[in-house]
Specification:
Elements: H1 2-7, H2 27-40, E1 44-45, H3 47-56, H4 61-74, E2 78-79, H5 81-104, H6 108-118, H7 127-133, H8 138-150, E3 154-157, E4 160-163, H9 166-177
Helix pairs in contact: 2-3, 3-4, 4-5, 5-9
Protein backbone atom coordinates (compact mmCIF):
# COMPACT_ATOMS: atom_id res chain seq x y z
CA UNK A 1 0.00 0.00 0.00
CA UNK A 2 2.75 2.45 0.95
CA UNK A 3 4.71 1.60 -2.17
CA UNK A 4 1.64 2.39 -4.28
CA UNK A 5 1.27 5.82 -2.63
CA UNK A 6 4.80 6.83 -3.67
CA UNK A 7 5.11 4.94 -6.99
CA UNK A 8 1.69 5.49 -8.56
CA UNK A 9 1.56 8.62 -10.78
CA UNK A 10 -2.12 9.04 -9.89
CA UNK A 11 -1.34 9.42 -6.17
CA UNK A 12 -0.50 12.78 -4.55
CA UNK A 13 2.84 11.61 -3.08
CA UNK A 14 4.17 10.18 -6.35
CA UNK A 15 8.01 10.35 -6.29
CA UNK A 16 7.79 12.46 -3.12
CA UNK A 17 10.98 10.95 -1.73
CA UNK A 18 13.20 7.91 -1.58
CA UNK A 19 11.60 4.63 -0.56
CA UNK A 20 13.32 2.77 2.23
CA UNK A 21 12.11 -0.73 3.00
CA UNK A 22 12.65 -1.49 6.67
CA UNK A 23 13.48 -4.94 7.93
CA UNK A 24 11.69 -6.47 10.89
CA UNK A 25 13.19 -5.74 14.29
CA UNK A 26 15.22 -8.64 15.68
CA UNK A 27 13.65 -10.82 18.35
CA UNK A 28 16.39 -10.07 20.89
CA UNK A 29 15.75 -6.33 20.54
CA UNK A 30 12.03 -6.89 21.05
CA UNK A 31 12.71 -8.95 24.17
CA UNK A 32 14.89 -6.18 25.62
CA UNK A 33 12.28 -3.55 24.68
CA UNK A 34 9.43 -5.49 26.31
CA UNK A 35 11.40 -6.36 29.47
CA UNK A 36 12.54 -2.74 29.87
CA UNK A 37 9.04 -1.42 29.24
CA UNK A 38 7.64 -3.62 31.99
CA UNK A 39 10.50 -2.76 34.37
CA UNK A 40 10.07 0.98 33.78
CA UNK A 41 6.51 0.74 35.07
CA UNK A 42 7.25 -1.47 38.09
CA UNK A 43 6.15 -4.71 36.47
CA UNK A 44 8.14 -7.78 35.52
CA UNK A 45 8.30 -10.12 32.58
CA UNK A 46 11.09 -12.64 32.13
CA UNK A 47 12.95 -12.99 28.84
CA UNK A 48 11.32 -16.33 27.97
CA UNK A 49 7.81 -14.92 28.40
CA UNK A 50 8.74 -11.69 26.61
CA UNK A 51 10.18 -13.78 23.76
CA UNK A 52 6.78 -15.36 23.16
CA UNK A 53 5.43 -12.00 22.01
CA UNK A 54 7.64 -11.45 18.92
CA UNK A 55 7.52 -15.16 18.21
CA UNK A 56 3.71 -15.25 18.13
CA UNK A 57 3.53 -12.01 16.15
CA UNK A 58 6.37 -12.91 13.75
CA UNK A 59 8.21 -9.70 14.75
CA UNK A 60 5.44 -7.58 13.18
CA UNK A 61 5.98 -4.24 14.94
CA UNK A 62 2.36 -3.22 15.34
CA UNK A 63 1.22 -6.57 16.72
CA UNK A 64 4.26 -7.10 18.96
CA UNK A 65 3.53 -3.77 20.61
CA UNK A 66 -0.20 -4.41 20.77
CA UNK A 67 0.18 -7.87 22.31
CA UNK A 68 2.81 -6.59 24.76
CA UNK A 69 0.40 -3.81 25.76
CA UNK A 70 -2.44 -6.28 26.33
CA UNK A 71 -0.10 -8.42 28.48
CA UNK A 72 1.06 -5.35 30.40
CA UNK A 73 -2.57 -4.35 31.08
CA UNK A 74 -3.33 -7.80 32.48
CA UNK A 75 -0.21 -7.92 34.67
CA UNK A 76 -0.31 -6.90 38.31
CA UNK A 77 3.32 -7.57 39.19
CA UNK A 78 4.82 -10.32 36.99
CA UNK A 79 3.61 -11.48 33.60
CA UNK A 80 3.27 -15.22 33.09
CA UNK A 81 2.09 -17.51 30.34
CA UNK A 82 -1.44 -17.03 31.69
CA UNK A 83 -1.33 -13.31 30.86
CA UNK A 84 0.15 -14.10 27.43
CA UNK A 85 -2.68 -16.51 26.59
CA UNK A 86 -5.37 -14.16 27.92
CA UNK A 87 -3.87 -11.19 26.05
CA UNK A 88 -3.57 -13.17 22.82
CA UNK A 89 -7.20 -14.22 23.09
CA UNK A 90 -8.25 -10.60 23.72
CA UNK A 91 -6.19 -9.32 20.79
CA UNK A 92 -7.66 -11.86 18.40
CA UNK A 93 -11.20 -11.33 19.71
CA UNK A 94 -10.83 -7.56 19.28
CA UNK A 95 -9.86 -8.06 15.64
CA UNK A 96 -12.26 -10.94 14.87
CA UNK A 97 -14.95 -8.76 13.24
CA UNK A 98 -12.32 -7.40 10.83
CA UNK A 99 -11.01 -10.90 10.05
CA UNK A 100 -14.54 -12.24 9.59
CA UNK A 101 -15.37 -9.42 7.20
CA UNK A 102 -12.11 -10.03 5.32
CA UNK A 103 -12.88 -13.72 4.76
CA UNK A 104 -16.47 -12.99 3.78
CA UNK A 105 -15.36 -10.48 1.14
CA UNK A 106 -13.06 -12.82 -0.78
CA UNK A 107 -13.93 -15.54 -3.27
CA UNK A 108 -13.99 -19.24 -2.47
CA UNK A 109 -10.81 -19.87 -4.47
CA UNK A 110 -9.06 -16.98 -2.70
CA UNK A 111 -10.07 -18.52 0.63
CA UNK A 112 -8.68 -21.84 -0.59
CA UNK A 113 -5.44 -20.10 -1.56
CA UNK A 114 -5.18 -18.75 2.00
CA UNK A 115 -5.68 -22.29 3.28
CA UNK A 116 -2.85 -23.45 1.02
CA UNK A 117 -0.64 -20.66 2.38
CA UNK A 118 -1.38 -21.79 5.95
CA UNK A 119 -0.50 -25.35 4.97
CA UNK A 120 2.89 -24.13 3.75
CA UNK A 121 2.35 -24.77 0.06
CA UNK A 122 4.78 -23.00 -2.27
CA UNK A 123 3.99 -24.40 -5.71
CA UNK A 124 0.44 -23.09 -6.03
CA UNK A 125 0.20 -23.78 -9.76
CA UNK A 126 1.34 -27.39 -9.57
CA UNK A 127 -1.43 -29.78 -10.53
CA UNK A 128 -1.28 -31.59 -7.19
CA UNK A 129 -1.60 -28.39 -5.14
CA UNK A 130 -4.34 -26.93 -7.35
CA UNK A 131 -6.39 -30.14 -7.04
CA UNK A 132 -5.68 -30.67 -3.33
CA UNK A 133 -6.84 -27.16 -2.42
CA UNK A 134 -9.38 -26.57 -5.22
CA UNK A 135 -7.54 -23.48 -6.47
CA UNK A 136 -8.84 -23.53 -10.04
CA UNK A 137 -6.62 -22.95 -13.05
CA UNK A 138 -3.05 -21.60 -13.04
CA UNK A 139 -4.38 -18.29 -14.36
CA UNK A 140 -6.94 -18.16 -11.55
CA UNK A 141 -4.21 -18.90 -8.98
CA UNK A 142 -2.06 -16.06 -10.32
CA UNK A 143 -5.00 -13.67 -10.35
CA UNK A 144 -6.03 -14.59 -6.79
CA UNK A 145 -2.46 -14.33 -5.54
CA UNK A 146 -2.23 -10.81 -6.99
CA UNK A 147 -5.58 -9.82 -5.45
CA UNK A 148 -4.56 -11.12 -2.01
CA UNK A 149 -1.19 -9.36 -2.24
CA UNK A 150 -2.75 -6.07 -3.37
CA UNK A 151 -5.29 -6.37 -0.54
CA UNK A 152 -2.40 -6.68 1.95
CA UNK A 153 -3.61 -10.09 3.12
CA UNK A 154 -0.53 -12.03 2.07
CA UNK A 155 2.99 -11.17 0.99
CA UNK A 156 5.99 -13.04 -0.30
CA UNK A 157 9.17 -13.29 1.76
CA UNK A 158 12.08 -15.36 0.46
CA UNK A 159 9.84 -17.19 -2.06
CA UNK A 160 7.35 -18.15 0.67
CA UNK A 161 3.91 -16.62 1.05
CA UNK A 162 2.61 -15.71 4.48
CA UNK A 163 -0.13 -13.61 6.01
CA UNK A 164 0.77 -9.94 6.42
CA UNK A 165 -1.14 -9.88 9.72
CA UNK A 166 0.12 -12.63 12.08
CA UNK A 167 -2.93 -12.33 14.35
CA UNK A 168 -5.19 -12.84 11.32
CA UNK A 169 -3.22 -16.00 10.53
CA UNK A 170 -3.76 -17.32 14.07
CA UNK A 171 -7.48 -16.50 13.83
CA UNK A 172 -7.65 -18.13 10.39
CA UNK A 173 -5.97 -21.33 11.63
CA UNK A 174 -8.46 -21.52 14.50
CA UNK A 175 -11.49 -20.89 12.26
CA UNK A 176 -10.60 -23.18 9.37
CA UNK A 177 -8.32 -25.81 10.90
CA UNK A 178 -9.35 -25.70 14.58
CA UNK A 179 -5.73 -25.03 15.57
CA UNK A 180 -5.40 -23.54 19.02
CA UNK A 181 -3.38 -20.36 19.38
CA UNK A 182 -2.87 -20.94 23.10
CA UNK A 183 0.76 -20.96 24.18
CA UNK A 184 1.73 -23.99 26.22
Amino acid sequence: MMTDIFNNPAKPFYRFGDIMLLQKIETKKWIDFICNGFANTGKQIDEKTAGMVPSLMKNHSWYVQQLAHYIWNLTDTKATITEVNTALKELINANSPLYQKETESISHTQLNLLKAVVKGETQFTSTAVMQKHALGTPRNVSKNKTILINSDIIHEINSVFEFVDPAFELWFKKQYFNQSYTVL
